[in-house]
Design a protein that fits this description.
Elements (H helix, E strand, L loop, with lengths): L1 E8 L3 E12 L2 E11 L9 H6 L2 H18 L17 H16 L4 H9 L3 H13 L21 H6 L1
Helix pairs in contact: 3-4, 3-5, 4-5
């Protein structure tokens, strides 16, 4: 999988930077990048030029793009009509686990992805993630400070082959 953008100017370039992503241990990681001339006659590539390319920033931007693309095929959040808080069903927690997993897979903050998708506070998103874990649709985190725990319905062998 690849992400691409013009650099340093998003509209005119004159360079095209392509990041290559591969599934590594069940999540996408950047495994390569290429810089190509987008506008004929651009300056030559020198060591100083390569040092000026902010690869870390481009990787973070690529992760955000992958997370947004993964969000597009998720179900729309249900909107409330105010009043008494809703009681959420198992399907809701399956969706929370799915959003969480997809964000984690591309290296984006999983709880923040749940927060943004449903437009709720961070504490609500974290509580939903915890309830997804308690209900068994999301596996346990490896420790308190790290994301993790694949959704129970994910077949790890299938993940390795994708």
């Amino acid at each position: 999988m690849e992400t691409q953008r013009l650099w340093p100017d998003r509209d005119t370039g004159p360079w095209s930077v392509t990041l290559t992503w591969r599934l590594v241990d069940t999540r996408y990681e950047c495994v390569g990048f290429a810089i190509r001339e987008h506008v004929p006659g651009s300056e030559r590539i020198t060591a100083a030029f390569v040092r000026s390319v902010h690869v870390g920033g481009l990787i973070e931007e690529g992760r955000r793009r992958l997370a947004l693309e993964a969000e597009h095929d998720l179900p729309e959040p249900k909107t409330g009509s105010g009043g008494r808080p809703r009681m959420y069903d198992r399907e809701h927690y399956h969706n929370v686990a799915n959003i969480y997993y997809r964000a984690w897979k591309v290296g984006y903050s999983p709880t923040k992805a749940v927060e943004k998708h449903y437009q709720v506070s961070h504490s609500t998103a974290a509580r939903w993630v915890q309830k997804a874990r308690e209900s068994g649709v999301l596996g346990p985190a490896p420790d308190e400070r790290k994301a993790g725990g694949l959704p129970r319905w994910i077949d790890r062998k299938q993940e390795e082959n994708s």
